[in-house]
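Question (not urgent): is this output format expected?
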Amino acid sequence: MKAYVKTSRAPGGELREVPEPKPADDQVKVRVTASSICGTDLHIWDWNEWAQGRIQRLPLVLGHELSGEVIEVGRSVRGLSVGDHVSAETHIADGTCFQCRTGRMHICENVKVLGVDTDGVFAEYAVLPEVNAWRNDPSLDPSLASIQEPLGNAVHCFLPEDTVEDLAGRTVLITGCGPIGLAAILVAKALGAGTVIATEVSPLRIELAKKLGADHVFNPKAMGPGIIQAIREATGGMGSDLSLEMSGHPDSLRLAFDALRPGGRVSLLGLFDGNVSLNFDNSIIFKAARVHGIFGRRMFDTWYTVKGLLANPTFRDKVSQIITHRVPIGELPRAMEILHSGQAAKISLQPKW
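Got this back:
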C-alpha cells in the first residue's frame, strides 16, 4: 500500500510502498476514507526539538486523525463488523496499569500513541485495537469524522474531571486559534459560556474566530502589553474564569495566567518547543489557580460528549468551517507548506494518491 513514512531523523517524510498491515486478534483493519493533519504531525514533519526527543521508532507511518471503513476484523473482535464506519481514539492503553484500572486510560503509564509510537494513518489502510475504534454514523462526512479526535481535545479542556464548575455565563479566554482553539470557541458557546475571548496573530484565523462566535478577538502581536487591559475591560475588570492555552507559545502561556481571575482555572493543551518560564508565585500560588494538563481525551467520556455535540446540525456545520482545505493525501508536502504559510486552519487529507 501507499503511505507517508518518516524515514530519517530529519525534516520531511517520504511517500513509500509498504506492506499492508494485518490485524491482530483484537484489532480491526480499516480503509482510510479521510485523515487530517494535527500540530503533532507538523512537529514530527518539521523534526523540531519536541519530535527529536519523543520519536523513538523509525521508519514510522505518520498521522493519527482518521475516519475509515472496517474491512477486516480480528478473531476476538465482537463489537465491530466489516462495513462499520469508525474514527480512531489515538491513545493505545495497556489496560492493566494503575491508571487504566482506575478510569484514566488516556494517561496510561505505558500509553502508545498512534502515528507517534506505532504506525499511523497517512496510508491506504491502518489497523486499530477494537477498543480504539469509535463507531460513527455512516452519514457523517468522513472529513468531519476524522477531526473528532482534536475536537475531543477541546472538550477535554472544559471537562477535565467528573465534577467541574458550571460554565453558564462564565468568561473563557482561549489563547491560540489553531483548529483546536477554534473548536474550543464552539464548545464554550455550546456549554453556555457568557463571554469568549480569543487571541490569535493569523489574519485568517482571526476572521474564523469571529465567524465562529468569539465575542472578542485580540492580536497580541499588534497590541503588546495593552492586551491585558483589553481583557480586563472585556471581563468587567475581573479577568477570565477559565483560560485555555492552545498555542504552545511562551508569551501566550504567561498571558493565560496573567489574565486569569483569582481562583480561576487554566487548561494547558499547547505543546512547547522547549522549556518555558513562569512566575509561579504570582501566576498560580497567590491566585489559588487550578491548573489542568490536557493530554488526549477522557476515554471514553469525551467521545460521548463529542457525539452529542455533533448531533446538533448547527454545531456540526460550524465545526465543518474549521476545515479550510481538502488536499489529496498524495500531496501531503504541499499541505504542510500551506500550514506553514498560516493560510489554513484544519487540512483534511482525501484518499487520493
